């Protein structure tokens, strides 16, 4: 997949199909409410002090009963406490954690979102038609451990970095691009939302936007700029990032797509045969910005 500034129409079409199939996406204002508050301030590189432009949490409300009633969310949440926070500390996967990984993938593979993604990847020659082989491929991409730090053992995987978050030797936040994890960390006072990052010369984000650029602190460390989908299902994110990852052999892939009303740049870093990181970057969220 070549890097380019224009919209990738084929990929946009596929992702819009996934978007329409994402019946487990939460509805803003009904299933959850976010409180954007102020614009995040500048944080100098290597510094962990940030002006707090948001006194209240980002998530004012989430329908937890609905979350717990949907299999993919339930199994996703079960994975969030399975990892060591700091790189350089080897991960030890228990039998129970291994089972949780498989239960999550099994639940994801039953959704129409992932079935659609699988069909597309088969057509592109990037996945086998056998569901068991595809599941094994997904496992390697997301859950196979690798060594991110030069010291210690296998200390990371795609799922941990993207969805759970980790720190670089306890000094820098990496990953954590998932709204469910952010909500859970915020609920337990582990994460402090500092404000939104607005795009240059653009309107502020809306509280019903499904993508947000934001700033936060976690265990005393500040992440100056981050981005994540808001409200989308785990299967949508796994499907989207898997497709972009498998369509490119490059170390870094940046592709521009239009999904629903959002103009996005999808960024995926490769770590061997696994995902190193992946996240969406908001370019525009309404027609006035095009």
Verbal overview:
33% of the residues lie in helices and 22% in strands. The chain is an alpha+beta fold and 290 residues long. A three-stranded antiparallel β-sheet has the order 5-6-7, with helices on one face. α1 packs antiparallel against α9 (234-246) and α4 (95-109) packs across α6. Residues 7-284 form the EndoU domain.
Hey, roughly how much beta strand do the residues contain? 15-25%
Instruction: Write out the strand line-up for the largest beta sheet, numbering strands in chain order.
Output: 5-6-7
Number of helices: 9
Please tally the β strands and state the result. Answer: 10
Structural class: alpha+beta
Q: How far apart lie the N and C ends?
A: 24 Å
Can you give the helix content as a percent range?
A: 25-40%
Please state the average pLDDT score: 88
The run of helices and strands is: HEEHHHHHHEEHEEEHEEE
- Biggest sheet overview: 3 strands, antiparallel
Poorly predicted segments: none
Nearest-angstrom radius of gyration?
Answer: 18 Å
Name the shape in a single word.
globular
List its traits.
9 helices, three-stranded antiparallel sheet, alpha+beta, 290 residues, globular
């Amino acid at each position: 997949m070549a890097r380019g500034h224009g919209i990738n129409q084929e990929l946009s079409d596929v992702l819009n199909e996934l978007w329409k199939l994402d019946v487990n996406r939460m509805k803003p204002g009904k299933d959850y409410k976010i409180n954007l508050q102020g614009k995040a301030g500048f944080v100098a590189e290597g510094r962990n002090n940030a002006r707090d432009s948001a006194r209240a949490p980002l998530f004012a409300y989430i329908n937890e009963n609905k979350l717990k009633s949907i299999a993919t969310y339930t199994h996703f949440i079960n994975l969030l406490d399975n990892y060591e926070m700091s790189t350089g500390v080897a991960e030890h996967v228990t039998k129970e954690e291994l089972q949780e990984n498989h239960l999550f993938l099994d639940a994801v593979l039953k959704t129409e979102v992932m079935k659609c993604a699988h069909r597309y990847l088969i057509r592109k020659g990037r996945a086998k038609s056998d569901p068991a082989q595809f599941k094994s491929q997904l496992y390697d991409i997301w859950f196979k451990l690798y060594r991110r730090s030069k010291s210690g053992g296998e200390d990371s995987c795609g799922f941990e970095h993207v969805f759970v978050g980790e720190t670089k030797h306890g000094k820098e936040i990496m990953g954590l691009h998932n709204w469910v994890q952010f909500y859970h960390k915020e609920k337990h006072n582990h994460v402090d939302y500092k404000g939104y990052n607005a795009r240059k010369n653009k309107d502020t984000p809306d509280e019903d936007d499904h993508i947000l650029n934001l700033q936060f602190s976690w265990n005393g460390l500040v992440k100056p700029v981050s981005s994540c989908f808001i409200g989308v299902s785990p299967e949508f994110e796994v499907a989207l990032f898997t497709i972009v990852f498998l369509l490119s052999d490059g170390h870094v892939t940046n592709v521009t797509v239009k999904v629903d009303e959002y103009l996005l740049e999808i960024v995926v870093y490769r770590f061997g045969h696994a995902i190193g990181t992946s996240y969406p970057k908001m370019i525009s969220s309404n027609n006035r910005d095009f």
